[in-house]
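Q: I'm teaching a short session on how sequence maps to structure, and I want students to see two examples side by side rather than one. Could you give me a first protein with its sequence written out and its structure tokens following it? Keep the formatting plain so it prints cleanly on a handout.
A: Of course. Example one:
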Amino acid sequence: MKGIILAGGSGTRLYPLTVAVSKQLLPVYDKPMIYYPLSTLMLAGIREILIITTPHDQTAFKNLLGDGSALGCKFEYAIQEHPNGLAEAFIIGADFIGTDSVALILGDNIFYGSGLSKMLQDHTQIEGGAIFAYRVKDPNRYGVVEFDSDGTVLSIEEKPQVPKSKYAIPGLYFFDNRVVDFAKEVEPSDRGEVEITSIQNKYLELGELKVGIMNRGMTWFDTGTIDSLNEATDFVKAIEHRQQYKIGCIEEVALLMNYISTKKVQAIASNYGKSAYGNYLKTLVE
């Protein structure tokens, strides 16, 4: 399975913070935001990753992440000229995906919780599609899943004015290779976007869409607003201070997944000087 991080968009809900910089490069406590979705894909065992950016932000992402070799991965880059919808990622990334299955994660989504790695790895050998449902107080901001009394999925709607449930769909999707053709067939919505909901409904119609409900031990943040960005920062700070572990540390994930050696982590740590992040990497080696 290959991975795609969609890190485009204009980030208008965060203006003026994002007038001159991509929101996925903003800090969430002690790391750039993109470290969190990147670490999620790496925890799934995905090492070939396409990072889709806006035209003017791509150089900054390349300067930050490079070609992925330092993490035992392979990163490629592509451009989304305009925010034409999430499903456009599969069209832009068609050549990158090739004949493989693919996981798409949004660059402003953060996942944390016990069992996260197993949950991710359980979906890398996929036939059909797999998404997740997470209970929220404001489901009208997201794609919404409707269940019957037996837990069977009845419908999926994109940002409905009157949601049929409290279960939102986080920005993490697993699909087999057919998703590329399905994306090319999607007609733009009234919002003028190639909606990811259309692809989910296609798999649902075929009876090949799995929807897993994230339990209470799992935490998800969509950091697209000022309040949610601050909430995520406070959460990461609290966990890291209390447990002395870092969330979204890509070098640590690479080490735990045996993508790189302790010697490589030590070399990376030396590049961070006396920063707290660099010191944390040194403790991993010790």
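Q: Perfect. Now a second example for contrast.
A: Example two:
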Amino acid sequence: MTDSPAPKGSPQLTTFFTANDAAAAIDFYVDVFGAELVARFDGPDGRVAHAEMRLGDSPFQLGEASPDLAIVGPPEEGNNFTLTFWTSDPDAVFARAVAAGATAVSEVDDVFSGDRMGVIRDPAGIRWCLSRHDRDVSPQEIADAAAKWMAEQDA
């Protein structure tokens, strides 16, 4: 008996998302992020039905949309989620991503949480925050800075 209901080596929560052209998305994640393809299963039509990848110590899964199973693709604009990739060089990853066809959502910058981060939308339609934690910031300092930032957004 294990302490976790998940398979050995798996976290209890793993993300699965659909990607526009999942095969191209897999190549993008390998080339740009250095992700590892762990497993890939193609459907009878040749499209990716399910793939498992690993980025550092984190697994994630993806596949093509399957409307008959109520699994839809990413929206044309925006996203209802963001994946955060913690990397030692967000500037370089951001530049590689944009060069490989990603859209810059927000340029890499130092932010009030003590992180250096930028946001892209990859060619498959997925929103990624590329981040590095540079300094610890107190919860009160983050709350004050966040309140100030939100007030500036309303102005």
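Q: What should students look for in example two?
A: Point them to this: The chain has three helices and eight strands. Also worth mentioning: The longest strand covers residues 48-55.
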